[in-house]
Amino acid sequence: MQHSDEIPRIIPIFPLRDQVVFPYMVFPLFVGIEAMPVVEEAMSGSQVVGLFFCARAGETCRFENFAPVGTACRITQVFRLPEGGAKVMVEGLKRVRLGRAVQRVPFVIAQVEPLEEPVERSLVAEALVQSVNAMLKLALAHGRPLPGDVMQMVDRIEDPGRLADLVTVYLSVPPAVQQRILEIMQPLERLKDVYLLLSSEVQKQQVRGEIQTEVSKRIGKTQKEFLLREQMKQIQEELGDEDPRQSELNDFRRRIDRAGMPEHVRKIADKELQRLERINSASPEYTVSRTYLEYLCTVPWSRGTEDQLDINRAEQILDEDHFDLKDVKDRILEYLAVRSLRKQGKGPILCFVGPPGVGKTSLGRSIARALGRKFIRIALGGMKDEAEIRGHRRTYIGALPGRIIQEICRAESNNPVFMLDEVDKIGQDFRGDPASALLEVLDPEQNNSFHDHYLDVAFDLSHVMFITTANVLDPIPGALRDRMEMIRLPGYSDEEKEQIAFRYLIPKQIEENGLGEQPITFESAAVRRIVNEYTREAGVRNLERQIAAVCRKLAREITQGRKRREVVTADLVAELLGPRKFFSEVAGEQDRVGVATGLAWTETGGDILFVEASQVPGKKELTLTGSLGGVMQESARTALSFVRAHARDFDINPALFENTDLHIHVPAGSIPKDGPSAGVTIALAVISLLTGRPARRQVAMTGELTLTGRILPIGGVKEKVLAAHRAGVRTVLLPERNRAHVEDLSAQVRKDMELRFVATMDEVAAAALLPVAGRFRRPGEMGDPYTPAAGPHA
Q: Residues that bind ATP, according to the entry (predicted)?
């Protein structure tokens, strides 16, 4: 062995592209014409050349691309080839470290530093050498042949470093791995790495042999196709190609890595993928398992949108999209304010309650836009199957996750604004109770671990902002109602509808009906006429339909070449929409004895109703008609008992009741009616009948009456007052304890109407009954029936 001093410190450098040369090994190098100057430079001097691996194979190898450690080799023979170039035999001398470049062009000459290897003589080294020898023989037994002289060399070598270098040369490993072995200076560590590489090679040979053995066992007359497929798989494996099934499995592995699953979900996904690998692709179980994995990878476990917590911007967006609704907007801005101060807090479940057409669903879209979140909406109306919420178990054919998980997957976000529309119209039958299934979804204390039957793993719904809508609260189960914060949207006054029409509805319908390039203008009187004569609703849905009808008719005139009308007047509205559909039920009517005007609350907003009373000879019987519910019938009996007990207070002869039957009727008998707030109206109709004093038609009232004459507060004040305003009523009698509730009314409504607050029936009778013809008014009674009501009073 040559001493390190025999290696010159400055030698020419030759790049190796696809192999690595080790010390003490003899290698043939095929040198092209362009690299012959390196060989000639070495031969003219010490015949020593440095062989260094160049990682940039296929490109011009620069000095910076050389590996830091190479092998100094002696050129022993040079065989020049006829076509140019030469075959050069080199003998590895010693590992050297690359130093400073002395010359770079036309070839590299550089300084090198010989590296000394420590001598390893220990029991561990001997044992490891023996293990490598045994593993080599095992590789030979599995069909990995080595030249006979190489095996003799292996048996004689006791130095672990030299043995590691020799085995590495004959292992099928990439040049980069060979270079890594070359750079390990500790012989024992180097041999350990080689032992691991050799073990891996033996395992591959064992698996390959087992597959071939298994394939050979299955050979038969009817299994030729199977044999060909197995051989094709082996060929694809050798070529590095993947069959479609394997490609799909690898795609699932990549998707599972990118899905950001929680640890407990990741374990289930990995286990399901291992199960999928073992299932035959023709089996039905393969499709079931594959679909389940597809959903696990699709669920946005950790993907969400970032909230836009700019309160001023959110307020601007809400004002742009919706007119009025101050309470709703304030609540949303409060939610944003809390979120900006505590980003990880649990959000409330808002429930928008109100009649159709007041903007409940569109409010959800505006909230999503203000927050910068994605918007999801599902309609719960008519839903009867609990599996629609929780999903089906995977044991059923065609099983799918519930609508909650499905929509979140489509949104690709774990924190959308999720609107559950019409929560008051959920059904219930033998398939379960969807309302009960919603309890976990809508409970902020539980939905951080929502379990869908299909996924069968916990999903965190606490980041989702749930919003529900309902027309009425009564059908909603109490437990579900308790989990939601109610926000009422009572409806709009005529003035508010006019503002909404000009700000939102008219521009939208002009654009949707193709009039954007030929815009038309609506006069205020035209919109007012549509509101008063062609719609009767709390919301604005029918108002939008009527505006759309006007726009459609104008669009038809334009396409038929008629004279274009640019301004929509009140007269043009009547011409286009035909005769008016609604009339004021109060204005212009006569004040009559025994007929009182009441107020009612319905799912579509407030409404007015008339209570009629008449008397016929009889035996003190009471007849009630008009599809009255049980509560309203009790209110009628209470009112009659009160009148009989206080007959003298109202100048009624008690003897009238002895031989008289009373009949109380509420018109529109086909419409069911119920509720306690008609007690005052029924009592006034009876008092008007028995005293002969007409009841003012333009005075409407509401309130629950007790036997002692007290008037108790009622609900739906705003809806009822707005209904009275739409019907032309100018005076409304409300219970004294409802005084605070009129603050929700707009200033315009309070200006147009006289709101009086009463505590007893005496006050109601004084305000609503006219004197008998020819009789002077009592102090405090209102003016004659043909004199307009007094000025505004709230």
A: 354-361
